Amino acid sequence: MTESRQGLILINTGPGKGKTTAALGTALRAAGNGMRVLILQFLKGSWHYGELDAAQSLGANFVLKPMGRGFVKIGGAETDPEDIRLVQAAWAEAREAIYSGEWDMVVLDEINYAISYKMLDAAAVAEALKSKPEMVHVILTGRNAHPLLVELADTVTEMREVKHAYQRGILAQRGIEY
Ligand code: ATP
Ligand code: MG
Question: What's the CATH code of the domain at 40?
């Protein structure tokens, strides 16, 4: 065991609820330690989430940016080229941010989802993460994390669904889902 500080790669994946919110919780913890946190949300956009306002109230060292446009039509030939373009742009910005030295933690929310729908190349992401600046923490969220990334990561958590309110017809609740 070593106590020296080092940047980690974490993945929150699996079918249960809590992947994004666990990443936000970790981000909050980092911010409380004076770390500079950037959260880039792949695919998300247009909807208003509570965490957008909460992030703003934390100031310039806790930045949350939706990089998509919300509803994404996915699946092979149906994927809208515009969504692919937005994912690629989000990745370009993410990569730049990880390497910039400006952030201590970069959260790539829903990036696993973008990769699993072939909007982004897993190998390219793995390559970039392999040689990332040592001290930067990176968190990747979303279902179906790619095996290449799972192998590379230091800490991988799979959320398991025991039950979800949605199954009883309870729609998304403010403060819980958004
Ligand atoms: P959260 O943002 O609440 O942490 P998540 O990141 O684990 O959820 P996503 O796959 O990103 O899950 O989906 C986000 C939305 O889908 C949330 O509104 C969440 O409540 C809902 N959701 C997540 N898991 C399930 C599930 N097993 N059944 C139904 N809805 C779910
Ligand atoms: Mg999520």
Answer: 3.40.50.300
Report which residue type is found at 172: A
DSSP characters over 96-159 = HHHHHSS-SEEEEETHHHHHHTTSS-HHHHHHHHHTS-TT-EEEEESSS--HHHHHH-SEEEE-
Task: For residue 92, give its domain range.
Answer: 9-168
CA of 20 from ligand 1 middle (Å) equals: 8
Residue 155 counted as domain residue: yes
- Does 175 map to a domain? no
Ligand 1 atom closest to the CA of 12, numbered from 1: 7
Total domains in the chain come to: 1
Q: What is the pLDDT of residues 42-99, one digit of tens each?
A: 998 888 889 999 999 999 999 999 999 987 766 656 788 899 999 999 999 999 999 9
